[in-house]
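User: Fold this, then the next.

Assistant: Folding the first:
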Amino acid sequence: MTHKEFHGVFPYLVSLWESLAAHPSAVPLGDAHRAVIDERLAEHERKSGVQ
């Protein structure tokens, strides 16, 4: 599916994603979710050699 096709088929999702991307701090995030994100980011960085 091309970018243009995605926008045509899923306009609500595109709008939602753009809203979240514009204001990520407005999305509530609990401590447990933050811990999982931090763990996965650290693992990704280890695997990809990011410092």
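Now the next one, as you asked:
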Amino acid sequence: MEQKFAKWEKLRVKGAWNFVLKYGVAGWGLTTALLFSALIYFAGRSAGASFARVLLPSLVIFPLFGLAWGWAMWALNEKAYLRAKSGGK
């Protein structure tokens, strides 16, 4: 168990907000916003709108979903960690 949760122990020391902002908002939300906007723009689905006009709504919507995703991942990882630490009960 020690090896399996070694990375999680390092992450959890930094706190939930650090994890959520780094992995949820920045890691998932911003990355997805950029990729989605580029895909829509370069696939010609932007109806003639500029890249910025496609990107701006994505920079609001996807980070909000990233916030939710980050909290969900924090909760699931923390639950698994605590269950393993208590002997799997």
